[in-house]
Specification:
The complex is a heterodimer of chains A (about 240) and B (about 220). Chain A has helices at about 55-60, 85, 105-115, 125-130, 145-160, 175-190, and strands at about 15-25, 30-40, 45, 70-75, 90-95, 165-170, 195-200, 210-215, 220-225. Chain A has about 240 residues and is α/β, with parallel strands linked by helices. Classes of the chains: A alpha/beta (about 240), B mainly alpha (about 220).
């Protein structure tokens, strides 16, 4: 079992490297020849209309969708051969929160953190940061609202502190306060040197943080533009 | 792998402790099956006692299907199965953990059904070692094979009906060996009558535990 992997001792030159990647669902193309290089510590905004392939791109990066052709290297590793080790270094905030309804908030966070081999010492601070305190920690997640469930999923990511953050519509379902908090978190982990890929329909919430934006259309990356972002690797996660 | 299996087993057993599905639904289902068998065989205790070993294991098998369905459905809500894949847990550890959790529930179920067989069918246990040995070995085999076929059917919409169809023929050796061992244990046969069947159960266990450790990961990824 790999030990704690944050911060990376020798960061790979490219955190994400996708070359001519084709991914299929049955015979339906999810990605139709994606080329994408993301440098370590870079924050990239992924834009595009519904069904363009943004979520599929993130799922390929997380190793959840196999590629039919092309090559994929995530954090310098093959996502198929090094699946388990790699997934401990990746945090994926998906549409679903991936929580167990019969467990409490704290139990869900603890399970997610321990499963990734991360130290449990960061759980309390992560929960507090996401506003998960007091009785809420002992509440079954079945009783939570969609926004609260998203906060729990985020708390797991914060406590795990992965090297690569894959955020799929991260602001969806969150109230104004939580949206602000999420923006702060993305800025912090990005500044601390983590690589972040954010798929969003609300670019105005992410553009100020991202170094670059790519647009996905029809399963391909059709454009890329440089954004302001923050200088990489100048701060640490609080 | 061992750390991951303990984590997984702990999680599944904690969920069971909260939801109490095994105690409130699976165990009563097994008892109802025993009662219905008794109705079907009539009031004469002779046929019931003679058929007790087979009826016990049939009830255990049917209840196992429910326990496995529950184990699979725990990972279905809120795309938890994707979460499990993303968690970084060793798939072999996930398999062993889920197997241990199901086995623990089946042991409780078998104690309840064992008492039911004694009370309802008038069965007399002569050789406790054979009975306990067959239950423990049978439990491991049922939990391991059930967990494996459970993940195989996990991503399929019709898994509720597909799982029994896949699993019940596969666990026929457990039914056969368990029944024969119980017959020896209830009628006071010599240990030699039961040992070959215990060996069969041990081989079944070894095959399915080894198979699960190796193939659970690839199946989980493709389910």
């Amino acid at each position: 079992m790999p030990g704690r992997l944050w911060p990376p001792q020798s960061p790979p030159p490219s955190a994400l490297s996708l070359r001519d990647v084709v991914a299929l669902s049955g015979r339906f193309p999810l990605l139709a020849g994606v080329d994408l290089e993301v440098a370590s510590g870079e924050t990239v905004l992924v834009e595009g209309p519904n069904g363009a392939g943004k979520t599929s791109l993130l799922r390929v990066c997380a190793g959840l969708v196999p590629v039919a052709s092309g090559s994929v290297r995530i954090l310098g590793l093959d996502p198929v051969r090094n699946r388990t080790a790699l997934r401990r270094r990746i945090g994926f905030l998906a549409h679903a929160a991936h929580l167990y309804d019969d467990l409490t908030v704290r139990e869900n966070v603890r399970f997610g953190v321990r499963a990734a081999g991360a130290p449990v010492s960061g759980i309390d601070r992560a929960c507090e940061r996401l506003g998960l305190t007091g009785r809420l920690l002992r509440t079954g997640t079945v009783k939570l609202s969609a926004g609260q469930r998203r906060r729990v999923a985020l708390a797991i990511l914060v406590a795990r502190a992965p090297e690569l953050w894959l955020l799929d519509e991260p602001h969806a379902g969150l109230d104004a306060e939580a949206r602000g908090l999420l923006t702060e978190l993305v800025a912090e982990v990005s500044a601390a040197g983590a690589t972040v890929l954010v798929a969003s329909h609300e670019p105005e919430l992410v553009e100020q943080l991202a170094h670059r934006s790519v647009t996905v259309t029809g399963g391909r990356i059709t454009s890329s533009r440089t954004l302001g972002g923050r200088p990489r690797g100048i701060a640490h996660v609080a | 792998m061992w750390r991951d299996s303990l984590l997984m087993a702990g999680k599944d057993l904690r969920i069971e402790a909260r939801s109490r599905v095994a105690l409130s639904q699976v165990a009563p289902f097994g008892v109802i099956a025993l009662v219905l068998f008794a109705f079907a065989l009539g009031p004469d205790q002779g046929p019931m006692a003679a058929g007790a070993p087979g009826l016990f294991w049939v009830a255990v098998l049917f209840s196992t299907v429910l326990a496995i369905q529950r184990s699979v459905s725990v990972e279905s809500g809120d795309s938890a199965r994707d979460g499990l894949r993303l968690s970084g847990l060793d798939p072999a550890g996930v398999f062993l953990g889920k197997t241990v959790a199901v086995a623990a529930q089946l042991v409780v179920l078998e104690v309840i059904l064992g008492v039911g067989v004694v009370l309802l069918y008038g069965a007399h246990i002569v050789d406790y070692w054979l009975i306990v040995g067959s239950c423990l070995l049978g439990t491991v085999g049922l939990a391991a094979s059930g967990t494996l076929y459970g993940v195989l059917s996990a991503g399929i919409r019709v898994r509720e009906t597909l799982l029994p169809f896949l699993l019940l023929p596969v666990v026929a050796p457990v039914l056969l060996a368990g029944t024969r061992t119980w017959q020896a244990g209830l009628t006071g046969g010599t240990p030699a009558d039961g040992l070959p069947w215990l060996r069969l159960l041990a081989v079944f266990d070894a095959v399915y535990v080894a198979l699960g450790v190796v193939v659970y990961g690839p199946i989980q990824e493709s389910a």
